[in-house]
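Sharing a chain and its predicted structure for anyone who wants a worked example. Both blocks are below, sequence first, tokens second.
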Amino acid sequence: MKPFNIFVILILAIITIGFIFFKDMFNLPQNKTESESSNNPILMDRINYLDYTKESLNSSKGSGRSVLFFAATTWCQTCSQLDKEIKENAQRLPSDVTILKVDYDNDREMKRAWGITIQHTLIVLDKDGKEIKRWVGGNFDLLLRELS
């Protein structure tokens, strides 16, 4: 094999390996005000589907709302389908419930604290933050039935 071909293959391998190992470094929030707005208690009255953070949980509980944790992943097809259904039907959700989407793949502390062992786990907390119901899987209609 010619030295030039070896050089090209080596460069391509380095680029590929670099992309695999450093791809998460480039997933920065594109709009800082957008990520900050999800923690704004004023907007919590109008938004009932948020990414889980300690601040969004505290804000939901502080406003007297019940909380539904939705442990989801990007690679889970049923999680993605429910995520889509929630976004399309957010107006049908009870006004006193906030859904907090938990990043199942990356939020180990949250999973450990609530005993979440599988993606597509849903946990309902009452207004005091006490767990009252838990189930795995299902679509938006099941979610509505479990919330009533």
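Comments welcome. The CA atoms of residues 28 and 48 lie 24 Å apart.
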